[in-house]
Specification:
Elements lengths: L1 H10 L8 H7 L6 H16 L2 E2 L7 H5 L7 E5 L24 H14 L10 H4 L3 E5 L4 E2 L11 H15 L4 E5 L1 H4 L11 E5 L16 H11 L10
Parallel strand pairs: 2-3, 2-5, 5-6
Antiparallel strand pairs: 1-4
């Protein structure tokens, strides 16, 4: 038990393994009461349940895209809750994993929008490496229990993340899929950034306006208009 407790303290330390560019921007968040409560909650969760993504991957989005390199922000709800799916990038799955229905619909829209072939892998790291910040409103979840880590503190942290991007960067495209993501709209300066909203790509809502929303071509059009390199969306 002592060894387990030491392992948890390392994983959820005051200074998580997050890129320095983000650590500098968000340093005040790590000392706030909600973040201490969140860490305590995660330690207790791991004593009894499996938590996704693995804790070393919770901040993958932050570690693949440096703060000043963010060009596009895609906001989801919470991580996939199945085995070998979530790895810290919203809507992305690990190589060799069956595509979840939401990701299938994203890739269908990608094909219809700009003609990309359906890929062999659902790993979206290629997008992240080009400055696409793929973040969920909540960064962890209990296995097989969607929404189980909502209301535990992550929303404050991701609010601070979105506000920092809006306040400190220019001409970023924010893609908000679904109501939890669209709740972040109030944090974004619409005079300085582009917001693209659509229903969540889940099979339950994709046919209510997600399909045909053309987020990929609209993003590249905006980036080009502001003298920024377009995203190569094809995987």
């Amino acid at each position: 038990m002592i060894l387990f407790q030491k392992r948890c303290i390392n994983l959820y330390s005051v200074n998580p393994k997050i890129d320095e560019s983000w650590k500098n921007v968000l340093k005040e968040e790590f000392t706030k009461e909600y973040f201490s409560s969140l860490k305590a909650f995660l330690v207790e969760e791991e004593k009894e349940y499996t938590v996704f993504p693995k804790n070393k991957e919770i901040f993958t989005a932050y570690n693949l895209v440096k703060f000043n390199d963010v060009r596009v922000v895609v906001i989801g709800q919470d991580p996939y809750h199945g085995e070998n799916q979530a790895h810290g990038l919203a809507f992305s799955v690990q190589d060799g994993t069956k595509f979840p229905p939401s990701l299938v619909n994203i890739l269908k829209e990608l094909h219809e929008d700009i003609g990309c072939d359906f890929p062999k892998s659902g790993n979206l790291s290629k997008w992240a490496q080009q400055g696409v910040f793929l973040i969920n409103a909540v960064l962890s979840v209990r296995a097989a229990t969607a929404g189980s880590h909502r209301g535990k503190g992550w929303e404050y942290f991701t609010d601070a993340t979105i506000k920092a991007i809006s306040d400190k960067l220019e001409n970023v495209v924010f893609i908000l899929w679904g109501k939890p993501a669209q709740m972040k709209e109030k944090l974004i300066d619409t005079s300085n950034h582009l917001i693209l909203k659509a229903p969540h790509p889940s099979p339950l809502s994709a046919y209510r306006g997600f399909f045909g929303s053309k987020p990929f071509s609209k993003t590249n059009k905006y980036l080009k208009m502001h003298a920024k390199a377009e995203i190569d969306w094809c995987l």
